[in-house]
Design brief:
With 134 residues, the protein is α/β, with parallel strands linked by helices. It has a single domain, classed as Rossmann fold, CATH 3.40.50. 39% of the residues lie in helices and 20% in strands. It contains five helices and five strands. It has a five-stranded parallel sheet, sandwiched between helices.
Length: 134
């Protein structure tokens, strides 16, 4: 009798992709980082838009998880500055704020935004969304 093949969860040694987490909330950054590392992703943290832009080309992420409301640079300024960068990662926007339809559609046209996730979010849904985008 044949045993079915069991797929094991990736270990920390297997890297599925590179993800940068940009959020001014340190607890949120660390929680997301722990989840993603557990899934096998390589991660880097940034606590604001300026720090993100400084680290971007060196880390060269496949995906960026970007909080919408942070001190310093606005989301629009960050997305505008990304145009001149070598690295062109996919971007997931995170926000506790609901946008009007017009504002939402305008934001989604900028940069390489592939998803918008409202905080708080379901952890399993969040990981599934990331797995589909990488």
């Amino acid at each position: 009798m044949n045993n079915p093949k069991i797929e094991k969860k990736p270990t920390g040694d297997i890297k599925l992709g590179r993800i940068m987490i940009v959020d001014d909330d340190s607890d949120q950054r660390v929680m997301i980082q722990m989840m993603l590392k557990n899934e096998g992703y390589e991660t880097m943290l940034a606590e604001n838009g300026s720090q993100f832009l400084e680290k971007l080309d060196k880390f060269d992420p496949d995906l960026v998880i970007l909080d919408v409301l942070m001190p310093g640079l606005t989301t629009e300024e960050i997305l505008e500055k990304l145009i001149s960068k070598k690295s062109k990662p996919k971007i997931i926007l995170l926000s506790v704020v609901r946008f009007s339809r017009d504002v939402f559609e305008d934001i989604m046209k900028k940069g390489n935004i592939v998803a918008y996730i409202k905080k708080p979010f379901d952890l399993d849904d969040f990981i599934n969304a990331i797995n589909e985008l990488i």
